[in-house]
Design goal:
The protein is an all-alpha fold and 252 residues long. The chain has helices spanning 5-19, 25-31, 37-62, 68-82, 90-100, 105-110, 116-131, 134-140, 147-161, 171-194, 198-226.
């Protein structure tokens, strides 16, 4: 750990305080109950693309790691999303949310209706983790520092405002409240230990900013396509389509 690791950690946390996507207008709309059923569905469809690419991102990272201790520590992230014999996994939990809001889960899983900007941003993140230094790749994951707050607010807001929200449909977020702390603790300490020069600290900070931009840009795309001005680009999901034949619940 560098002598100024404490101030460096404060710098990283300040990035989240200023730039994390919990401040985006779409999240305020969603958590307050202001989204229409189709706006909720659009969020579920597009966020699934991010969820489905997270284990691919982590696999790309692990393929570059020579240290078996680091690979062992990182492996659980893939299992948390892909699942194991004992753990349903985050991807399946997200598809249960898709069921709950009345979407055809096969359509959601296909990712066919994802917004072009969502696809571009998420794919850019996977490439970043694959191509940049290990320090920058780990630092980019540190948006997890700020995730528990948004998960807690999301659970509270969805339960209060939407009929589809219950323990089953929101299980992804509840599980992340349990899974994320160990990832956060490990990732933060690894970055603090390895960002041992000013140059490396600056690179790690830029990586975290990049990741906040990835998250923010996804919500910008959602807001533009499905809220204001409501301009859905060609090929993206059209409201009212690809609904389940027998929706489990309505999104409002």
């Amino acid at each position: 750990m560098t002598p100024d690791a404490q101030s460096f950690e404060a710098r990283l946390r300040q990035i989240g305080a200023e730039r994390y996507h919990d401040k985006h207008p779409f999240h305020h709309l969603l958590h307050s109950g202001g989204c229409t059923p189709d706006q909720v569905r659009a969020w579920v469809i597009n966020r699934f693309y991010y969820q489905a690419r997270i284990p691919m991102k982590d696999a790309a990272f692990m393929s570059r790691v020579h240290d078996p201790d680091l690979r062992r520590a990182w492996r659980s992230r893939i299992e948390d999303h892909d699942g194991t014999a004992e753990n349903e996994g985050g991807i399946r939990r997200w598809l249960r949310l898709a069921d709950a809001v009345g979407l055809d889960r096969d359509y959601v899983a296909s990712t066919e209706g994802v917004l072009p900007a969502t696809r571009f941003a998420v794919d850019a993140y996977v490439r970043f983790v694959r191509d940049e230094t290990l320090l920058e790749a780990v630092a980019a994951s540190l948006t997890e520092l700020f995730a528990p707050k948004i998960h807690a607010a999301r659970i509270e807001g969805l339960l209060a405002n939407y009929e589809f929200a219950d323990d089953s449909s929101l299980s992804y977020f509840r599980n992340r409240l349990q899974e994320a702390p160990k990832d956060v603790a490990f990732g933060l300490q690894w970055v603090l230990d390895h960002a041992d020069t000013q140059e490396r600290q600056d690179a790690a900070a830029r990586a975290l900013i990049f990741k906040t931009d990835v998250l923010w840009s996804q919500l910008d795309a959602l807001h533009s396509a499905y809220v204001e001005p409501g301009r859905v680009p060609p090929g993206a999901w059209q409201p009212g389509t690809y609904l389940a034949e027998t929706p489990q619940a309505q999104a409002s």
